[in-house]
Amino acid sequence: MNGVANGLESSGRKASGKMPAVPVPIFDESSYLKAMRDRRGSAKIYAMYSSVIGGIVTDTNLMSVPIDDHLVHRGHAVFDTCSLFNGNLYRVDIHLDRFLKSAATARIAHKWTKDDLRSIIQQTAAASGKKTANLRYWMGAGVGGFALHPAECQSASLYVVVWGSHPAHSAGGGTLDLRQ
């Protein structure tokens, strides 16, 4: 198309020379990271594991999920949560059993055992440096493209996030019964 798409030049100007009604910048890496830093909301996110990168990050500007993950554009994913209180994960095995059952029901083929998942969750919690927090984890069909079928996915994706403090420990949050 020689730099012209739908009557727009690569500069964003309409071919007629007029600016579009809503100018949209094109970012390079540094301007993208600056924009991410500037727009961060109030959520306190302390650590994130991503199987896509194969590790944990603690800089919120680096916490992202690829747009071509079927978790994002198809909703082909499952999630669960658990609590971290005084450095202990509560009922994590019950949550992992449910998580793995949900993944099987959603036909998400993956490589992780229950022990693998527990280890990744524990390591992500430790990397957060928090003793009391919430954890949420997602498993998706994986990164691959925008087709309907997950056969294009390279492998399942897993994300673990440690965020905030448990609501039972914040103002008006009620109580947490740890005997369950």
Can you give a write-up of this model?
InterPro entries: Aminotrans_IV, Aminotransferase-like, BCAT-like_N, Class-IV_PLP-Dep_Aminotrnsfr. Belongs to the class-IV pyridoxal-phosphate-dependent aminotransferase family. This is Aminotransferase class IV. The chain has 180 residues and is an alpha+beta fold. The protein folds into two domains: 1-39, no CATH class; 42-169, D-amino Acid Aminotransferase, Chain A, domain 1. Helices cover 24% and strands 20% of the residues. The protein contains four helices and six strands; from the N terminus they run αββαββααββ. The protein has helices spanning 29-39, 70-73, 92-105, 114-128, and strands at 45-50, 55-57, 77-85, 88-90, 133-140, 157-163. A six-stranded antiparallel β-sheet has the order 2-1-6-5-3-4. A hairpin with a 4-residue loop joins strand 1 (45-50) and strand 2.
Key terms for this structure?
2 domains, D-amino Acid Aminotransferase, Chain A, domain 1, 6-stranded antiparallel sheet, 6 strands, 24% helix, disordered C terminus, 180 residues, alpha+beta
Strand order of the largest sheet: 2-1-6-5-3-4
Radius of gyration: 20 Å
Largest sheet: 6 strands, antiparallel
**Which structural class is indicated by helix and strand composition?**
alpha+beta
CATH topology of the largest domain: D-amino Acid Aminotransferase, Chain A, domain 1
Strand fraction equals 15-25%
Segments where pLDDT lies below 50 for 5+ residues? 169-180
The end-to-end distance, rounded to whole angstroms, is 63 Å
Oligomeric state: single chain
The top level CATH class name of the largest domain: Alpha Beta
Judging by the overall fold, what is the CATH architecture of the largest domain?
2-Layer Sandwich
Overall tally of domains? 2
What is the residue-averaged pLDDT? Answer: 85
The shape, in one word, is: flat
Within CATH, the superfamily of the largest domain carries the name: Aminotransferase class 4, branched-chain amino acid transferase, N-terminal domain
The helical percent reads: 10-25%
Tally of helical runs? 4
**How many runs of DSSP E, i.e. beta strands?**
6
SSE pattern, N- to C-terminal:
HEEHEEHHEE
GO molecular function, one term: catalytic activity
Organism: Vitrella brassicaformis
Pfam families: Aminotran_4 (PF01063)
GO biological process, one term: carboxylic acid biosynthetic process
